[in-house]
């Protein structure tokens, strides 16, 4: 990604703390990370050098609001690479799950993906280059009980990404999605315990897959749904 302008959503989250340093290490010229809480930026300060941290542009944005997403992307010189990590996980039996929670899950998992892809694509099509990498889930292709909203919304992410890949055939724009199983983040350790954490996918490992798909080397890969399951 040397010299590329990267939009990295969720760059301060559990997965983002693995992906952001990898994007920086691979030579991105500029990395734009949307945020909502100033404390989010402090997470990266502790793991990046001052010089690397200075290469990041932080922009306040609500990725569920189209005007906010448009403003975010308008502040970038261009979007060469979109890596969309933002998402949310929740559980509940279908007959007990509230419609409000269902809509919330689709907002954070699918609707944010649509909005950032839509407006990043405009920049990519204008400049004739782009790499889009989204994050689905193993549950998108292997749904399990008590995860209906999560699995359905992540399946939508997979379908959306594949549709974009089909729309951009014949261009130098690609779109691919990764399908992680459980990611070894502090949040997952807190909610699920650490008994099986050694079998989960490490953020740094998933970062390598994501950054490959976002690179020049993956120019012939489009519409792929790449399983990254760890040892589960």
UniProtKB/TrEMBL annotation:
It comes from the Bacteria. The keyword Methyltransferase does not apply. InterPro entries: NAD(P)-bd_dom_sf, Sc_DH/Rdtase_CS, SDR_fam. The keyword Signal does not apply. Keywords: Oxidoreductase. PROSITE patterns: ADH_SHORT. GO terms for molecular function: oxidoreductase activity. Pfam families: adh_short. NCBIfam families: PRK05653.2-1. Belongs to the short-chain dehydrogenases/reductases (SDR) family. This is 3-oxoacyl-(ACP) reductase. It comes from Chlorogloeopsis fritschii PCC 6912. The lineage of its organism: Bacteria, Bacillati, Cyanobacteriota, Cyanophyceae, Nostocales.
């Amino acid at each position: 990604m040397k010299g590329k302008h990267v939009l990295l959503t969720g760059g301060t989250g559990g997965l983002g703390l693995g992906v952001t340093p990898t994007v920086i290490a691979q030579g991105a010229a500029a990395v734009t990370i949307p945020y909502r809480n100033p404390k989010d930026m402090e997470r990266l300060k502790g793991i990046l050098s001052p010089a690397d941290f200075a290469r990041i542009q932080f922009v306040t944005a609500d990725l569920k609001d189209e005007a906010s997403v448009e403003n975010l992307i308008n502040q970038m010189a261009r979007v060469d690479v979109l890596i969309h990590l933002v998402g949310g996980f929740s559980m509940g039996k279908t007959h007990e799950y509230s419609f409000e929670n269902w809509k919330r899950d689709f907002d954070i998992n699918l609707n944010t993906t649509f909005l950032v892809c839509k407006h990043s694509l405009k920049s990519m099509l204008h400049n004739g280059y782009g790499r889009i990498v989204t994050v689905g889930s193993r549950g998108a292709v292997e749904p399990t009980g008590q995860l209906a909203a999560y699995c359905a919304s992540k399946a939508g992410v997979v379908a959306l990404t594949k549709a974009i890949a089909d729309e951009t055939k014949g261009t130098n724009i690609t779109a691919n999605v990764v399908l992680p199983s459980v990611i070894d983040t502090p949040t997952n350790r807190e909610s699920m315990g650490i008994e099986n954490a050694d079998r989960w996918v490490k953020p740094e490992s998933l970062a390598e897959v994501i950054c490959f798909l976002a690179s020049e080397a993956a120019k012939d890969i489009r519409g792929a749904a790449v399983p990254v399951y760890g040892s589960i």
